[in-house]
Structure formats: structure tokens, C-alpha cells
Specification:
The longest helix is centred in the C-terminal third of the chain and has 33 residues. 48% of the residues lie in helices and 22% in strands. The protein has 13 helices and 21 strands. About 1% of the residues have low confidence. It has three domains: 203 residues, Multidrug efflux transporter AcrB transmembrane fold, CATH 1.20.1640; 182 residues, Alpha-Beta Plaits (2-Layer Sandwich), CATH 3.30.70.3400; 96 residues, no CATH class. By secondary structure, the chain is of the alpha+beta class. The protein has a five-stranded antiparallel beta sheet with strand order 4-6-9-8-7. Strands 10-11-2-20 form a four-stranded antiparallel beta sheet. A four-stranded antiparallel beta sheet has the order 13-12-17-18, with helices on one face.
């Protein structure tokens, strides 16, 4: 065998072995190939940006404005929340004045501004002020301005959610997170049962602060790392470390407040209230959760504290617990149908093309392994439409081999010897294979861009399958055929319908 063929063959085998390792990885803690909701069931959430304001923030704004109106000797308006309550959040406030003149006076005196400090961290946000005059009554609606958020806020939120999920348990690590066509975040969590845990981890805005006597003394932006461990006889604990200025601030705060409680807050929800037992001069320490804490609680605390804050609050537009839409029997029958089709195709190739057909079947096995390996490596989720995309691309891979073999036959009939016919056959077949694959690839990309859910899953596997089938047909099949005919090229002409050359 020629030296160049040996190296090419060895390279293919290395890639094949790597793909097999990815698929059957014995060191993997969970499933290497992740299955979607239709095959496994789980939880599905649709999230959208939530521009409403919390009751604490609205109460602070209301009290501030009423105080200003009292100082200006204006009549005190009636105040109510705007919209319906949901998770202690409202759309805004409505100030009802006794007359249009009272509202006009308040506006002329500059009591209502379009920018206020709306939270407890020194940040300011734009407000939309909408006056409404109705006869002798006037009202002013105040709500937060959605345009005050970064344009890429949802994309950044998607990245943070994906990061949170990747740090969670193996069930949530199988999630599929993506933006849909309506500007919402679709989260699919195959295999997960608890809606409460999923919703809490995903939608928490995640502003981490440390407080003593309800006063913010340290912000969590400098938190470098936090994890959880189980201390024998002590229970679970959260080792953590800060970086930069955060480490210096933590050292000073703990030195000045030994014996006091330093509460940990996520947004305005207190997660825990540990006691400072000693100074932490190097900016690292450990929070003890006690013997009553469970591994799930410790893991959840660690995830929430280190996964970063969302640039915009999110609300759950839809949440459902999904049972596998396909029964186990249907899935098994679909698998049998797929295997039956592949086996029949392989039998046809052997019967019709003999040894070259057998080589095409071997390449088909390599192709399927490469596709699944790429799915595992890219952390893809396999759904039933995705399986359909793989089966379709398998058919295209076989078609490419048939085109190549028929081109080789044509070259042999035109009088060329086996080696030159092989080269010419591949060269002539390349254009036809490229054209057919590119047209299919265009359709797959359209599905990827404009589709969602199962349709997008079909587009993903079809894209991977088309690209892989083209590469295996053009390169792997070529190398295997070159190896077959290397020692006695003309002997194999008979397998292409041509008598052996003397």
C-alpha cells in the first residue's frame, strides 16, 4: 500500500475512534446523546422580557413623589398600581388628581421626572409618563421604559441562562435554549420533573449582594468562584473566593464585623444569613449550611450565586410539564423502521455493486458514527424530526456513492484503465454531488434561520448530515477504493460491469 494511503487511512480511523469514544464515553456521568422532549419528556418554558416594577420599588417611588407634592402644597392624589399583580410586580403606578389643573401644576413644577433611581443599588432608569385628561379628572401613568435596556439584553440573558443550566444537575444539563422568532427565549429541559426549581434558577435576575443590618456592604460582581462540598460531621458548605477589590473589601468587612450576621441576598430575596466567625484576609472563605441542608439545596445556592445576573428581568410566558409525545412502543417501532431501511439499502449496494457496494456500506457506518459524534461534541439535542434529518442525509450519502460508481463505469466503458477511471469518475461526480448537496443545504439553513422547535431540530441534523455525507462520499470512499485497487487495479474493473483488462 502506498505511504500516502496509509496516512490517510490512519487519519480516518483516528477520527472514527474519536467519534465512537464520544458516543460511548464510559467516563460520562449522563447520556452522551441527549434526547428532546418528544422522546424523553420534561419541562418547557417560554420566557419574555419583564419590564414591570417590583412593589418595593414602586412603593419607594410613590412615597418620594407624594412627599414632593406635599412640600409643594399640592393636593395629594390617589395612587394605585397599574395592571394586575404577578409575583409582586406591576406595570407601574397611576396618580389620580382632583383636577387637570393640579396635574398641570405638578408637571410645570418639575415634580415628575423621566429618570429616577428605581432600585437599591444606585442605578437609575428611564420612565414613561403618560398624562390622561378626562373631563374634570386627570391621571398620570408611570411605567418603566423598555428602551432603557440594551438591545442585546435577551441574547445576553440567553447566554447566562445557558450557563446556569450547564452548571446544574445532569437533567437540566440536557436543556435546549434558543431565541424564537417572536423575540422570546425557549427553554426545553428534557428529563426534568420539578417546575419550581427550573423556574427559580432560570428567571432569577441574580443581583448578588452581601448585607449587614440590611445595609449593602459588598456586591457580588467580584465573586470569583463558589462551589459546594460535604463536610463529614458538619454538613454541606459553600467554599467561595473573591477577586480584585472585592477580596480587599471582604477582608476589611469581615475584620470589622466578626460575630455579626452578613446576609446574602439575590435581588431582594435573602438566601442565607451566616455569621462572620473570623476575618478573611485573603478574600476567600466558606459558608456553612449545617447538617439539615441537602445536596440539592447546596448545589442550587452555588448555581444561583455564581451564574451571573440577567441584564433584564424575565417572566414566564408559558410553562408546561411535557410527557413524551411518543409512546415507548412508537419510538421502538420508529427505530426498527430506521434500521430496516438502512439494512435494505446496504443489502442492495452489496448485491448490485459487490465489493464497491460493500465499501460503500462500510463508509455509511463511518458516516453515521461521524454524525452522532458531531451531535455529541456540539451538545446537540436529538428529537424525532432530527432523526428524520439524519435518515434523509443517509439516503443522500448512498446517492452520492451511486453517482460516483456510475461515473467510474462510464470512464471504464470509454477505455480508461481502472486507476485513471477512478480518478476521472470522482472528478466528474463531484459537480453533481456538490450541486445536490448545496441545494439541500440551502433548504436546511432556511429551516435553521426561520424555523423553531422540532423544525429547527430537523434543520440542524440535516445540515450536519449533508455536510458529513458529502465529505465521506468524496474523501473516505475515495481513499477506501484507492486502497482496494492499489495492488491490482484492473482486477476490480469487473465489479463495475467491465471485463477484467488483460
Amino acid at each position: 500500500m502506498r505511504q500516502d494511503l496509509r496516512w490517510k487511512f490512519l487519519t480516518i480511523i483516528i477520527f472514527f475512534a474519536g467519534a465512537l469514544f464520544l458516543i460511548f464515553n464510559p467516563f460520562s456521568k449522563g447520556e452522551t446523546i441527549r434526547f428532546g422532549l418528544d422522546l424523553k419528556g420534561g419541562i418547557e418554558l417560554v420566557l419574555e422580557a419583564d419590564y414591570r416594577l417590583g412593589t418595593k420599588v414602586l412603593s419607594k417611588l410613590k412615597n418620594e413623589l407624594i412627599f414632593k407634592m406635599r412640600e409643594a402644597a399640592l393636593g395629594e392624589p390617589g395612587v394605585s398600581y397599574l395592571g394586575s399583580e404577578d409575583n409582586n410586580r406591576y406595570d407601574g403606578l397611576v396618580f389620580k388628581f382632583s383636577s387637570p389643573e393640579e396635574l398641570a401644576r405638578a408637571q410645570n413644577m418639575g415634580l415628575f421626572k423621566t429618570r429616577y433611581q428605581l432600585d437599591f443599588y444606585g442605578e437609575t432608569k428611564n420612565l414613561i409618563l403618560t398624562p390622561n385628561f378626562q373631563g374634570e379628572v386627570a391621571e398620570l401613568k408611570i411605567r418603566q421604559d423598555p428602551n432603557d435596556y440594551p438591545k442585546d439584553a435577551l441574547k445576553r440573558a440567553l447566554t447566562i441562562i445557558d450557563n446556569r443550566i450547564s452548571q446544574a444537575s445532569s437533567g437540566m444539563a440536557e436543556a435546549d435554549v434558543r431565541l424564537d422568532n417572536q423575540g422570546r427565549i425557549n427553554v426545553q429541559l428534557p428529563g426534568l420533573k420539578s417546575m419550581e426549581d427550573a423556574q427559580a434558577i432560570i428567571t432569577a435576575t441574580g443581583r448578588l449582594t452581601f448585607r449587614i443590618n440590611n445595609r449593602v456592604v459588598l456586591d457580588g460582581t467580584d465573586l470569583k468562584d463558589i462551589t459546594y462540598v460535604n463536610r463529614p460531621g458538619e454538613g454541606y458548605a459553600l467554599p467561595f473566593s473573591f477577586k480584585g477589590n472585592g477580596a480587599k473589601q471582604l477582608a476589611k468587612i469581615t475584620a470589622d464585623n466578626v460575630g455579626k450576621n452578613m446576609a446574602v441576598y439575590l435581588d431582594e430575596q435573602m438566601l442565607m444569613d451566616p455569621v462572620i466567625k473570623s476575618a478573611l484576609p485573603d478574600g476567600s472563605g466558606e459558608i456553612s449550611l449545617g447538617l439539615d441542608a441537602t445536596r440539592e439545596e447546596a448545589e442550587r445556592y452555588a448555581i444561583l450565586m455564581k451564574s451571573g445576573s440577567l441584564p433584564v428581568s424575565l417572566k414566564v410566558a408559558a410553562l408546561s410539564q411535557v410527557a413524551p409525545t411518543l409512546g415507548k412502543e412508537i419510538v421502538n417501532l420508529s427505530g426498527i423502521a430506521m434500521l430496516s431501511g438502512i439494512i435494505l439499502v446496504m443489502i442492495f449496494m452489496v448485491c448490485f455493486y459487490k465489493v464497491p457496494g460493500l465499501i460503500a456500506d462500510v463508509v455509511l457506518i463511518f458516516y453515521a458514527t461521524f454524525v452522532l459524534g458531531i451531535m455529541v461534541m456540539s451538545n446537540g439535542v436529538l428529537t424525532l424530526p432530527g432523526i428524520a434529518g439524519i435518515i434523509l442525509s443517509i439516503g443522500m450519502a448512498v446517492d452520492a456513492n451511486i453517482i460516483i460508481f456510475e461515473r467510474i463505469k462510464d470512464e471504464l466503458r470509454n477505455g480508461k484503465r481502472m486507476r485513471s477511471a477512478l480518478e476521472a469518475g470522482f472528478n466528474r461526480a463531484f459537480t453533481a454531488i456538490l450541486d445536490s448537496n448545496v441545494t439541500t443545504l440551502i433548504a436546511a439553513i432556511v429551516l435553521l434561520i426561520f424555523g423553531s422547535g422540532p423544525v429547527q431540530g430537523f434543520g440542524v441534523t440535516l445540515t450536519i448530515g449533508v455536510l458529513t455525507s458529502m465529505l465521506t462520499a468524496i474523501f473516505v470512499t475515495r481513499i477506501f477504493l484507492q486502497m482496494m485497487i492499489d495492488r491490482n487495479p484492473d482486477k476490480y474493473a469487473k465489479y463495475f460491469g467491465v471485463k477484467e483488462v488483460a
